[in-house]
Design brief:
With 193 residues, the protein is an alpha+beta fold. It contains six helices and seven strands, in the order H-E-H-E-H-H-E-E-H-E-E-E-H. The chain has a three-stranded antiparallel beta sheet, with no helix packed on it. A two-stranded parallel ribbon has the order 1-2. The chain has a two-stranded antiparallel ribbon with strand order 3-4.
Length: 193
Amino acid sequence: MRGTVSTLALIPKVRDAIGDTPMLAAGGFGDGRGLAAALALGADGAVFGTRFLASAESHAHPIYKQRVIEGGSADTVHTKLFDIGWPDAAHRVLRSKIVGEWEKAGRPQSGQRPGEGKPIGKMTRAGIEVPLVRYSVFTPTDYFEGDIEDMALYAGQSVSFVDKIAPAGEIVRAIAAEAKEVIANRLSPLCRS
């Protein structure tokens, strides 16, 4: 079931199951309308992973950030392709060279994929060098050296909402302002008698 139930259906079920325990919803949120929807469904807040990937403070590689800005919902793939270090876990990624090669090969299972285990680059941080291979779960950071198109470019369908790199504080203020407007102008009138 992991990774297969939509956020819209999952939030109310989780809320019912956990009672008053604080809950953050994740999956598909990219703006204030999404935050308002998450709150209306019973969440206490929302996680905006893809949106903050393209923040000024993110350590995502600049090419990765640009791919997120240029991407749309249809440019993502739900898969278990990147599994070295995180086996059998569903995830969503942007289409890339490695995804295309895997699809062209007929979507073979782990152990039979094109170029599996091939070195693709390295991450060097704090004097520690970590070599990376194809189908690893690592994402390209600003300290990655190698072929970014061979890495997991994680991005949700909310990638459609990302149109620029902005400071995290600006992103938070914009999301909060839009959610407040949606709640005041679209949801509050429903409560009037």
